[in-house]
Amino acid sequence: MAVKYKPTKTEQLKNELVSMYMNYWKNIAMNIFEWEGFPESVSPDLLSSEIIENWYFGEGDAVFFKDDNKGFLCLKVNKEGFNVVGKPTAYRAWGNGFVKKLSPDECVYMKNNETATPTALPLLYLCECLADIELTKKLRRNAHKTPFMLETAPETELTAKNIYKKIDTDEPVLYRNKSRGEADVGVNVLNTGVEYINDKLNDEKNTYIAEILTLLGIDNYVEDKAERVQSAEVEANQDYVAHSFRASLEKRQKACEEINKKFGLNLSVKYKDYKKHEEDKN
Predict the structure, then answer these.
(1) C-alpha span between 261 and 25 (Å, rounded)
(2) Are 16 and 30 contacting, i.e. CB atoms less than 8 angstroms apart?
(3) Who contacts 73 (Cβ-Cβ below 8 Å, separation ≥6)?
(4) What whole-number distance in Å separates Cα of residue 261 and Cα of residue 276?
(5) Which of 190, 185, 175 is nearest to 153 (CA)?
(6) Across all residues in the chain, what is the average pLDDT?
(7) The whole model's pTM is what?
(8) What are phi and psi of 61, to 5 degrees?
(9) Beta-carbon-side half-sphere exposure of residue 195 (alpha carbons within 13 Å)
(10) Residue 45 DSSP one-character state
């Protein structure tokens, strides 16, 4: 019988950190754009800004169509029957037990970006990097808490482990003094000479956060306090952000135009400007 692999405590913690970061950034990613103009007859449980952005985030594309029984829907999609230039000749909409085959004339194929790449795909890698950094910081903090190794014989190994356990839980540890004729605990202390690098790890973490913000099309330039950043670097960063933002917005606007033309609706999509919203409230 095969032994079932049990993840280590560190692996479990990394998985939890990745999940935490993914949920945090997904909440932000799904609230950058807002879709408006859905018909009043459509239930928000079947069609909403949240549903569309959720497909974009996890799938990278979706298909909009009108079902005879359920009305207008936006669901996950599979492309089928490609023609000579690689365009699909049919789409299969599906979700939670519902499946419907559609021709291009019956629906609008919608893309998150030019390559129909889900936002979650690059985001997962960046969140794994953030989790690795946090685990490294935790390890380094522990290394500074105990900047030494305990050398011991097998018969005194339990003593060494108990010493480590007390230090790890911030309990004082009393050591016997051999020069006074007291019993030897059988443990030698070896200094590891660990170097403090958590400040550098924080800088690396901020770099990955900036990459995520750029991916989402959110301005993220923060002037480096250590050195003056050239204006050309600032402009380059803003260009990356602008291109990322426009690529996402334009694909959504194109989907709205095609949906409105095909189904006679008045859908629109806009950027959620929270700063302006707060200014208007004041």
Answers:
(1) 33
(2) no
(3) 46, 47, 64, 65, 66, 67, 93
(4) 31
(5) 185
(6) 82
(7) 0.78
(8) -155, 175
(9) 4
(10) T
Q: Residue 187, SS3?
A: strand
Q: E strands along the chain, which residues?
A: 33-36, 61-67, 71-82, 88-95, 98-102, 107-111, 148-152, 187-191, 268-271
Which residue type occupies 6?
Answer: K
Q: By the 8 A CB rule, do 113 and 251 touch?
A: yes
Check: CB of residue 14 under 8 Å from CB of residue 129. Answer: no
Which of residues 182 and 113 earns the better pLDDT score?
A: 113
- Based on its alpha-carbon atoms, the radius of gyration of the chain, rounded to whole angstroms, reads 28
60: left (phi over 0), alpha (psi -120 to 50) or beta: left
DSSP-derived 3-state class of residue 47: coil
CA distances in angstroms from 136 to 8, 18, 206, listed in the order given? 16, 14, 15
Are the C-beta atoms of 135 and 14 separated by less than 8 Å? yes
Rounded Cα distance between 165 and 162, Å, is: 5
Q: Which of 185, 194, 179 is nearest to 149 (CA)?
A: 194
Q: Which residues contact 195 (CB under 8 A, 6 or more apart)?
A: none
pLDDT digits (tens, 9 = 90+) for 184-195: 555 555 555 567
